[in-house]
Known about the structure:
By secondary structure, the protein is mainly α. It has 22 helices and two strands.
Amino acid sequence: MEKRKLSFWEIWNMSFGFLGIQFGFELQNSNISRIFETLGANKDEIPILWIAAPLTGLLVQPIIGYLSDRTWHPYWGRRRPFFFIGALLASIALFIMPNSPTLWIAGGMLWILDASINISMEPFRAFVGDKLPPKQRTSGFAMQSFFIGVGSVIAAILPWIFTNWFHFSNTAGAGEIPESVKWSFYLGGIAYFLSVMYTIFTTKEFPPEDIEQFKKEKRETTFKDALAETFGGIFKMPKTMKQLALVQFFTWFALFSMWIYATNAITSTQYNMKVDGSLVTKMHNAAQYRLDKLSTENLSIVEKNKQEKNLKSLVKDFEEIRQFRVSENPKVISVNIANYFSDGLNTDTNKEEKKELKRVQKEYNDGADWLNVCSAVRNGTAAVFAFIIPLIAYRTNRKITHMICLIIGGIGLISIYFITNPIFIIISMAMVGIAWASILSMPYAMLSNALPANKMGYYMGLFNFFIVIPQIVAAGILGYFTIHFFNANTINTIVLGGCAMILAGLLTLFVKDEEKE
Length: 517
């Protein structure tokens, strides 16, 4: 059956849910490292904690794609049941995440949040292939990119808005998430649910072309068959999909490098988080003394374990400073150290030292808020550029368009290394935004024409293996690379990500785009 051409507003309605999905995705990407660091994570622990996101994607995305291909309800349709379930679960997770009392709970909530986002997001990708004829699919994915950009702009800038417009505090006590971040997540949860429900109630789906054959296949397929086909399909991918997989690998390795370490890289190099070396030595000795003495303290097992984890994390930060920053004075310290020793109940530092540490605490959170603003610019650029991409693709082709955008994004990441005034990070992030607009549309537009219609959701889910696998690789090696190859200097990890994105752009030239060739 030939699909009819949809109007602008029909494409608008079917894509609107991505506005809310991106609230959840951007709040996660912009603030999770900040939450982890605030709860005491060290530099080499942050990538491992982030591994929750790609692992849940690896498990959830292809299964949801497969199941949604085999779902049909007279009212809810094929993809919309998954929109609803994912939106409900993700909205609940967004309310719980910023209230995590410990690092391990925050890590666990990231698993739940990312799984929930994937339940609703992947069927949205297949939605374009379901409803639009081939000539409109580039426009359909571009519209999704527009809403992704708009949602990302608002979500990224929310902590800054709550701090500067509504005067919510952007600092908090040791182990506590600032109120500005908490309320950003609450608003994001509401936006996520409402925007997805808008798409559900304003969009209809087409039934399978042969409903009886559809029902027969569904009856004859067991869950075991589903799992075997889902994870075995990686060996049966169309040629275009295999070629795009390599492009996706280096693209998402680069993005994951940015999401994991941008907060630390920018706050530690562009903001004054330095204190005198003598204070660092004093705090190091105090933390080590408390750790050594802890075994003799009359505390409950739960409290003792909590204090031991906090103190070991502090000592690890101090050891890193001693190993890599021994000749520097003043020395950059972590927000973990500043939070612990600036606390009013801490007796290891005096009033003046606490004042200095509170200054560092504020510098970190001001830097994190500014990075959110720059992320909003990045996403705003992506939203605008989403409408320019089809024009460039029309005059060249989709491969050339994607290559140009990725190279611009890679240069943007590398440029952060050379910046001395944080205001110019906006330009770097705008360049990444150009790449982001293409990443969210061009690979899917190239892929959709190479896929059979009855397996669109399945292959779209499988394709996301090549989003999550590079993230798992990054989570596994970036902590080691950052400490042992880059001397704990996270800005070098961002440069590595920029190089990976440029390589991804060059590899795009080898992709077979069936619409053009």
